[in-house]
């Protein structure tokens, strides 16, 4: 009889991964500490050892996870901004279940550090108002992804989220069509041209 594998130790990373899986697969409304504990095969109270503020800390951590984006600086501020916007869009589309948190939670921790890094990149490349540019770029990316998720039908449940026998199965992850990619790039081109004309 094969030896039973020891349980995987609980960690902040495991908690966040499990929470993202629930949010993306069933919707943010169904992400409860009890359901998260069940997914991790631990008592819900065990999660509080890693997230002492409980659900509030979990929501902050999920928002940080999808907005703490890093991109290598390019040869120009436009290339740096474009790389950051593409990386940010990809991270947000990967986890549409927590898009609402990304839109509403103020940047903290690694997310705030990422914003400072992006601002410094644009400043070092010679852009006159790097902080204003980062705010405009973030607003564009978040808005563009929100439209993509809406158009994808992701947020439209195929079953009643309260029906345990028929779990909510989102039709698809947010966006990703060639048309959405083209629209995003055209909008980004226009925004970068406007920022450069200031």
TrEMBL record:
Residues 9-69 form the HTH tetR-type domain. Transmembrane segments: none annotated. Keywords: DNA-binding, Repressor, Transcription, Transcription regulation. Residues 155-187 are annotated as: Disordered. InterPro entries: Homeodomain-like_sf, HTH-type_TetR-like_transc_reg, HTH_TetR, Repressor_TetR_C, Tet_transcr_reg_TetR, Tet_transcr_reg_TetR-rel_C_sf. The keyword S-adenosyl-L-methionine does not apply. It comes from the Bacteria. Pfam families: TetR_C_1, TetR_N. Residues 32-51 bind DNA. This is HTH tetR-type domain-containing protein. It comes from Streptosporangium oxazolinicum.
């Amino acid at each position: 009889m094969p030896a039973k594998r020891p349980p995987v130790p609980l960690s902040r990373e495991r908690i966040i991964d499990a929470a993202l899986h629930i949010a993306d697969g069933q919707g943010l409304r169904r992400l409860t500490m009890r359901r998260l504990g069940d997914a991790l095969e631990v008592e819900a109270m065990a999660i509080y050892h890693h997230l002492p503020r409980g659900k509030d800390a979990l929501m902050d951590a999920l928002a940080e996870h999808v907005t703490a984006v890093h991109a290598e600086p390019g040869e120009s501020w436009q290339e740096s901004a474009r790389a950051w916007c593409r990386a940010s869009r990809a991270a947000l589309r990967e986890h549409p279940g927590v898009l609402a948190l990304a839109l509403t939670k103020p940047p903290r921790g690694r997310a705030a550090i990422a914003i400072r890094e992006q601002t410094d990149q644009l400043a070092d490349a010679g852009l006159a108002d790097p902080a204003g540019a980062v705010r405009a770029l973030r607003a564009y990316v978040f808005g563009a992804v929100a439209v993509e998720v809406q158009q994808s039908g992701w947020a439209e449940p195929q079953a009643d989220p309260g029906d345990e026998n028929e779990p909510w199965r989102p039709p698809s992850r947010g966006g990703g069509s060639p048309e959405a990619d083209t629209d995003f790039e055209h909008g980004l081109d226009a925004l970068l041209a406007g920022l450069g004309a200031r």
